[in-house]
Amino acid sequence: MRELIARLRDWLRRDKLDAELSDELRFHSEMLSRDARSSGVQPDDAPFAARRALGNLTAVREETRDRWSVTWLDHFQQDARYAARGLRRNPGFTAAVVLTLGLGIGANAAMFNVIDQLMFRPYPYLRDPGSVHRVYLQTTARGRVLTNTSLPYTRYLDLKASTSSFSQYAAFAQLTWAVGIGDAAREFHRFAVEFIDQLFEMVVGE
Asked: Considering the entire predicted model, what is its pTM?
């Protein structure tokens, strides 16, 4: 972790380190050139002798930079600069990309909000969703237990009258009825809901 932090700190001041590296290499090159001239090498050949002694300067620079750089961060910066230059050269393509990303992000955010409200968050009118239960009627026929998702309204009234385990009761029924006169009649899904001894009826869709 300390090495990563040190690399990031050096990466932020890499321009200064590059300048210091260039000065250091220049200093060593001058010293080696001076030593070569002192040992009898011709003045014109001294710089070449110094370069041979130092080795491949490009390789030395790359190896030294690897010690203070973050490779993936350098590659990301280069890719980002290349992408930015490409987008500046093609403003029409840039506008299409931005519009596509905006529509995609907006659509995904809207869908996530709908799914979050419908599937992950409790209904706003339920004070304690964990205490809400749905009751099914089970019957046994020929040794098989059958679970009915619906039950007669009279059974619901019997359940309310004879059961004290629940603090409140609610029942609903879904029907498809034709609404209208003649050719203008249309089928609608209707829900009849009884909650706290009050009966509501509503049309929810065609």
From this structure: 0.33
